[in-house]
Amino acid sequence: NMEGISRAVTFYDINCQYNKHFRARVDASRFLEMTQDLTIIPGIGLWHVHGHQDSCYVRYASNFIDGIGRIDGEIMETLWARLNLISPAARGMSSPHRQECLDYQMNDSNFCKMIRMKRTLCRKYKLAMNGITESGKAFDRLDEAAPAHLKTEWSARERRAQSSRLNDPEAMDEYEINIKKAPSRKEIELRLLEEGSARNAAPSRRSVATWISTGLAIEEAQIALLIEVRRMGKRSTETQRLDIARQRDRLQGQIDGFTQSALTHLGEGFDADDDPDDLNVDILDDLDDDPADFSKTSDAWTNSPELTVIPLPSNLGVDRCRHCMAEDLIPLEMSLREGQANDTLHNLRIHLCNKAVLFRTSVRQAKSQALKTRAWSQVTSVQQAVSLHASIYTKTRKQMMKLEPGQDQLQKFKPLLREQLKISTAVGDPNARGQRNESLAWFWSVEVDLGGPDQSWNEEFYRVHWLRAKALQDRWKEEMTLVQLEMDWTCNYFSWRATQWGDRMRESLEKRLPGHACYSGRQSQMYSLLAQDAQAAFEDLQSVSIETGDE
Question: Which residues have a Cβ under 8 Å from the Cβ of 382 and sit 6 or more positions away?
Fold first, then answer.
């Protein structure tokens, strides 16, 4: 029954993998065959695609497949839902009884869908009309502001992606933001270790990248502990003080091990017993705090580990590193500091987005005091994470300034201001009205390498919004076309079934089978009434829609 069909769309939970060798497996089978002219477009149902990798969404979701309208792709799951009504009773049945019960239930479900087809299609028609209107408004807002030459380019890229998706699913990544993510601290550390092994570095320099990375992790732990001590305040419980004491003991052990390793990497010119004041750094300056705030909570620890300055090249200073013959450690720490800044800003963006979502979905939607309290508790937790990562970035940037950074690094890693940490609707809802001229803080684009000026970032986002809005509008237009065709198909089917049962009635009368003739006549009358009712309802609905459109 596939004659004349040259294009088919298949939906399967793991079609991103299953479809790769599907045709080869069919060709190798002795029992299966498929015409070579048939083009199969793989898709994944919307319920399952969100459990895949992010790249699978634009490559296999039905939202970006031409010609299929608005469909979720979950065919079998919607049929299984009908069986939930009889599943408790079917558990205790024998196999033959269960099979008969399931067959009866599915036949009844199919019959109910048939006689309710008129109501279903009318509802889908109204949804399609509303979808076309709303998606058209959203797309027009974006389309009006986009330059003509960019729209021409974006349309060409869209056509090229759709035509190439069968042989190269990655072509559909046009609907995603094409950014090059900045390297993390772990990636930079791995690269430095591989480079050290490749050039057969000296034993004292082989693991220096890991040693510096450990120092950066210790600094982050110091800042986290400082913030926790400050947040605990003067009226702390015994349990809180015990937890702080344990964290300090663990942190002090890490600092001792790091300092002993410094003798290996910094050479004989470094003395681990040097006075920390000579290292010329004060962590408290990075947190904008007053040292008096810690006088009550840190009096039990004369040399609190969270205030100890560890012997990193940035703390020693460029001149002292040269004196210790450790000048080659400066570019290594600078590279790792860049990775640390990238990681911190990435976490900062995630928590700010989370905060924006919480305000939209929890705080503003809370209708009772209990829900508001719970929502604000979540916001406070996220805000604490924002403060932590902001403090770590401030510390990281201050240490980078001591390593004599280049002009590119100064332009990339700018000072972090408090007003930039406020959430914006441009983050939570980039498609909202009034966001066309909104601009985000600089750190929202620090991971992007588009090879162009700052406006390339906004242009890239605008391109994706434009393409997705256009795809949504196209799917709704296709849905309207399909619904209108389904209306015609439904009426034709009912008329055909009425004619078929009418012929059977006449055959039964000729054979003098009054019972068969009576049943056939009843079926013919039923389908005839279904056809008339559906035809009248569809014509009335379309005429009302035309009048509304004219107004």
Answer: 351, 354, 355, 358
Residue 482's alpha-carbon distances to 164, 183, 539, in angstroms, are 25, 47, 16
Model pLDDT, residue 297: 45
Extract the tokens encoding 336. 């790792």
Give pLDDT, residue 413. 87
Distance CA 300, CA 292 (A): 15
DSSP, collapsed to helix, strand or coil, labels residue 457 as helix
CA nearest neighbour of 326 among 274, 247, 261, 280: 261
* Secondary structure (DSSP) of 73-112: --HHHHHHGGGGGTHHHHTTS-HHHHHHHHHHHHHHHHHH
Q: How far apart are CA 223 and CA 252, in angstroms?
A: 14
- Burial class of residue 125 (count of CB atoms within 10 Å of its CB; 0-12, 13-18, 19+): buried
pTM of the model: 0.58
Q: Does pLDDT of 475 surpass 60?
A: yes
- Confidence check: pLDDT of 246 > 80: yes
- Nearest CA to 223 out of 171, 288, 137 is that of 288
Digit-coded pLDDT (tens) for 442-459: 676 555 443 444 445 567
Whether the CB-CB separation of 504 and 515 falls below 8 Å is answered with no
Structure-token pair, residue 124: 């889908």
